[in-house]
From TrEMBL:
Lineage of the species this protein comes from: Bacteria, Bacillati, Bacillota, Clostridia, Lachnospirales
Positions of the UniProt region annotated as Disordered: 26-49
Domain BRCT: 51-138
Sequence ranges of Low complexity compositional bias: 26-39
Domain of life, per lineage: Bacteria
Name of this protein: Putative arabinose-binding protein
Annotated organism of origin: Robinsoniella peoriensis
Amino acid sequence: MKRRKITALLLSCTMAAVLFAGCSSGSKDSADNNAAADSSETESGKSDAAGGKVEISFWDNNADTVRTEIFKQIIAEFEAENPDIKVNFVPVPADQAKSKYDVAIQGGTAPDCGIVSQYWMSDFIIQNALVPLDDYLAGWADADQQLEVFQESIRDMAPDGKTYGLAQTVTIPAVWYNTNILKETNIQVPEDWDEIITAAKKATNKEKGIYGFSLRGGAGNSQQFEQMMYQYSGITQMFDEDGKSTINDPAHVLLLDSFAKIYNVYTPESDITNGATEMISAFDSGSAAMIFHNLGSYGLHRDTLGAENFDSLVTLNSKKDTKVIVSNGCMGVSIFNNSKHPEEAFKFISYLCEKNGSSKFNEKIGQVPCNKEALEDDWVAKAAPIKEAADALLDENTELATLPINVIGYYDLHQNVLVEGFQNVLLGNTSAQEFLNDWADQMTQLKAEYDANVKNK
């Protein structure tokens, strides 16, 4: 793999793309959303002369019809309970959200509050665009109902260790498996990654067009496999005490080498270029017995296969005999520094994260809420994969490892460098050890630059 030069400051390109891309609405809706976002500053900070209402603006960063409907419902309930506050809702398409936030921040026209991917927080914090919420949290009665593992992860994004967002929803990685295929081949449900590889070999039946596993080898391959590796090893720290990346740990080398050996034998040849969509399609068509994705695809599997024909594994036994969830961050809600009404904005974003708002929103979109009480609602118990994730998150023995998304250059490295290198490992052109050593060297350098230029300044 060709090593590329990594400069000290990558702020302009690092987080300019949306990792968590979702389905945007049609062209007319998108145009309407764009116009609303471009003019939202005129709707922020107003006070109704007759009623004395304070107006705040709120942006959604992943607009679609489902999210817009539920946000409008929650906003109506909030306004009924808080008649002195009016929320101007602006749905922004996912593929434009980051750039629109960037333009608004530079122009001093950011909304009062909005949905912010944890991926973007370092960028926004460095620009002094977000309000620290620690003082507000001290007076919020429901602060202890937030899942601390994700609040801690958000604090870790900030060089000053302050809280610049409230965790609202999280997408948990999971192994999906076809229960019928495993049953027909007398395979016990795997409990670790070694057993998954063994099961993949046994489940493969090329005469029937069935492969034991489908691997994401195209766009997004390296980060998804990064989650698999840390779940396998049980390592929860991305860097050691000397600041060196742990990505080339021997356990990680072993897992990558094992998957390189089963590629195109017990996985489809097309995996080399398949992205998430193709991998999910292989699973939903029954041509792949197992895949590794996240709970965000639950609805697709349910609607295609039927809820009784598949299941998930959210946690697996690691080499350290622990269970680790490897997170690439959450979706949070933040207040922007140009807000004239931060107290009212906090009142609203905290409402979104309390039991009622959190539960309603996450049930509608099929994701995992970051509120403890919401995790115990009836709808969670009825959705088996969500329930498994909820149980794991509420279990004090579950460990959380967060990928180094706060390090400037991390996203760019995955997007522009590691994809081809990962493919070369699958094709046998590069060894797993060589690839991971190179990856580790680059992450160690990025971490040193981040510490020198951002964290320790």
